Amino acid sequence: MSDNLSIQFLKSASTVLKVLGHPARLKLIEFLETGEKSVGEIQRHLDLSQPVTSQHLRHMYSRGILKFRRDGTTYYYSIANEFIHKILNCISECQVKIETGEWELDLFDSATMEG
After folding, report:
1. Span 104-112, mean pLDDT?
2. d(CA 77, CA 29)
C-alpha cells in the first residue's frame, strides 16, 4: 500500500466506511449492484419495515453513497459512484478467500470479538 493517502481522502473514506458499517446497508448496496431499484423492491429484499428502509436510504443518500430519481410517487435508488462498487467488490473477494481457506482470520471468529 502506498504512503501517499492524503488525510482528506482518509477522512472521506472513513465516513463512507462508517455508513457502510451496518449489515443491512451492505446488503442494500449488494442488491443495487445490478441497477436501480424502487424503495418497495429494496424494502422487500431487505425484509425491513418501510420506515427503517427509508431511514437507511436517506442516510446513505446524505453521505453521497446513493442517488435517486423520482418517477411520479415512486423513488428509485442506485449506487452513486464507482468507489462504492469497488468497496463491495473488495468485501466479496475477501469472503471468497476466507470461505476457500486461502485466508484464515480470527477477526471473523465471534469468540475473538467477545474478548
Report:
1. 63
2. 10
Q: How far apart are the first and last CA of the chain?
A: 30
Mean pLDDT along residues 22-48 = 96
CB atoms within 10 A of CB 26: 14
Rounded to whole angstroms, how far apart are CA atoms 36 and 79?
Answer: 8
Whole-model pTM: value is 0.81
Asked if 39 and 45 count as a contact pair (C-beta separation under 8 A), the reply is no
75, containing H or E segment: strand 74-79
Sign of CA dihedral 32, 38, 41, 44: positive
- Residue 46's nearest CA partner among 66, 27, 59, 26 is 27
What's residue 101's pLDDT? 87
